[in-house]
Predict the structure.
Amino acid sequence: MNKNPNIRIPKFRRRAEARPDEVLDAALDLFIEQGFAATRVEDIAKRAGLSKGAVYLYFPSKEALLEGLVRRAIVPVTTPAAAALANFDGDPRDAITLLYGVMSQRLADPRVLAIPKLMLREVSKFPELAQMYRREVIDRAIPIITGLIQRGIDKGVFRPVDPELALRSVLGPVGMHLLMAEIFGIVPEGGLDVPKLLQTHIDILFNGLLAPEAKAT
C-alpha cells in the first residue's frame, strides 16, 4: 500500500492491480444480463477491455470467476460476522438481529443480491458451484447459528427445540423469498425488498422461539 503521497505508483502497476476487480465486474454484468451458461470468457474479456488470455491469468475458468465474486462480495462480511457471533455470550436474540442487520445491509445492494440469485439459477446445471457456495458460505454459517440457538435454549430464552431443524426456520425464508422470485416469478407487490422481509422475519421468528418466561423481558 502506498502510504507516502510523494511516491507515485506507476500507472501500469495500478492498472494491473485493478484488473481482477475489472474482470469480476464485467463477469457479474454479463452473468446478470445473459446467465452464467450463456456467457463466454471472451465476452467477459471484451467487456473488461482485455484479451481472453489476460482473463485466464487471473481466473482459470468461469467457475473461478463466480467463486471470485462470492469471495469478494460475501466472504469478507461472513468471516468477521461468524467470528463475532461464535464468541457472542449475550442474549442470542441480539446476535441473530445483528446477523440479519448485516445481511440486510449487504443484500440491499443489487450487485451483491445478484450473486445468490445467480447461484439459485445455475446450481442445477453446475453442481460444483453449489459445493463452492456451500463451502464458502453455508458451512460457515451452520455451526454458528445452531450454536446460538443452543445457547438460547441453555439460557432459557428459547424453547427446547432441535437446533439443526430450527436453523432452517432461521435461514430458510431468505432462500425461499429468492426462490419464489427467481424460479417461479412470484414477487411481492412492493418488489424484492429483502430488508423489509428480514425485519418481518425477525418479528415472526422471535415470537415463535421465545420461551414464556422470556416474553416478559
The radius of gyration is 21 Å. The chain has two domains: 11-60, 68-214.
